Amino acid sequence: QVQLVESGGGLVQAGESLRLSCLASGSIFMLNSMGWYRQAPGKQRELVAQISWGGSTRYADSVKGRFTISRDNGKNTVWLQMNSLKPEDTAVYYCNRVPGSAYWGQGTQVTVSS
After folding, report:
1. Could you give phi then psi for residue 28, rounded to 5 degrees?
2. Fewer CB atoms < 10 Å away: N or C end of the chain?
3. How far apart are the C-alpha atoms of 22 and 43, rounded to whole Å?
4. CA 21 to chain centre
């Protein structure tokens, strides 16, 4: 069964932190790079952070230095630690493999107030 379950979003003020979690099914997680994507209202979905099976990471310029992606290969779980949040980080956040699969979870809403 294909599964992507994101959690950890919420409403925070600018400058605060959130930690997102994603539990993925093995068919998506195993041996694949995983990523966190986000989609703001009226905008296309964008990849903001990715991590390879071996732990190498890459970040979009807009989040570099503020977000940290990590994974536990034994638990099919990937996290996104988000610090120094800004109002422009407001979006629905999704996890998926990189490149994305056809299946997407429900996402988790992150709202940052100024």
Report:
1. -95, -40
2. N
3. 22
4. 8
